[in-house]
Amino acid sequence: MILRILLGLLVAANFVRGADEHFDTLRVGTEFYTNVTVTSVSATEIFFIHSRGGGNAKLKNLEPTLQKLFHFDPAKADAQQADQAKANALYTQGLRNAPTAKREPAREPESEVQQEGPANGVPAHPIYAKAFINQPAPRLQVEKWLTQPPDMNGKFVLLDFWATWCGPCRRSIPELNRFHSRFKDRLVIIGLSDEPEQAVRRMKDPAIDYAIAIDPRQRTQSEVQVRGIPHTMLIDPSGIVRFEGMPQYLDQRSLEILLARFAR
């Protein structure tokens, strides 16, 4: 379970390869972490694994060098925190207004949502977004296609929320390329970034073989409430989400089973 780090933390890190978000050591207050790898990044936090488990840290509390590395935007972070506070208030108010017999102790939603059990045959794993599993998918909203728009008619769609600056996102691209090559007769893969067109086109390594689109206004991303990337959703031909989470939790065998099980 990813731990929530207290506010006011102080971070110092020695880079191994900044582009891969890996650190030899990471100091958080009086705590020292070793062999740290960042697994996902949101507008407000980084989530990481280390030699003793997992943790997260507020971007606003990182030193300026790390804030720059993770593209920290104070305005965007404040806006997301305000949205989360509003959602928390609505959640608590809903509990207060619920019938007495169904009322539960009020609690804030966690950044990490741990699935309680296997979903459609895929082992339980954490997600950093609103849950859509076995529900209708949100509408895909694209400002501009940077490749030819794919034909999604009658096909599965694997939607990947990503960014060029995100090391875990880039490391998942080769596997998504393999999925595209093997299953392209029945699966469309779409990489959706909220970055400017120039930033996405500038990235040449790794190369992306599947469809790419941008939406700087984050319309689909906001509807999905993505709090950490990479985040993927497998949508069946009828528009129902059959997998959600980081792409590393979806291997080729699991994908084959899902494509066979939910084909129309």
Q: What does this molecule look like?
A:
The chain is an alpha+beta fold and 264 residues long. The chain contains 6 helices and 13 strands. The protein has helices at residues 64-69, 74-97, 167-183, 197-202, 219-224, 252-261; strands at residues 11-17, 22-28, 31-41, 45-50, 53-58, 113-114, 126-127, 144-145, 156-162, 187-193, 211-214, 231-235, 241-245. A 6-stranded mixed sheet has the order 8-11-10-9-12-13, covered by helices on one side. Strands 1-2-3-4-5 form a 5-stranded antiparallel sheet. The longest helix has 24 residues, at 74-97.
Short description:
The protein has 264 residues and is an alpha+beta fold. It is built from six helices and 13 strands.
Strand order of the largest sheet: 8-11-10-9-12-13
Q: Any idea what the radius of gyration is? A: 19 Å
- Helix percent reads 25-40%
Q: Count all strands and give the number.
A: 13
- Please report the distance between the alpha carbons of the first and last residues: 37 Å
Which structural category fits the helices and strands?
alpha+beta
Strand content: 25-35%
Low-confidence stretches: 1-19, 94-112
Shape: globular
DSSP helical segment count: 6
- The ordered string of helix (H) and strand (E) elements is EEEEEHHEEEEHEHEHEEH
Query: What is the averaged pLDDT score?
Result: 75
Could you give a short account of the major beta sheet?
Answer: 6 strands, mixed
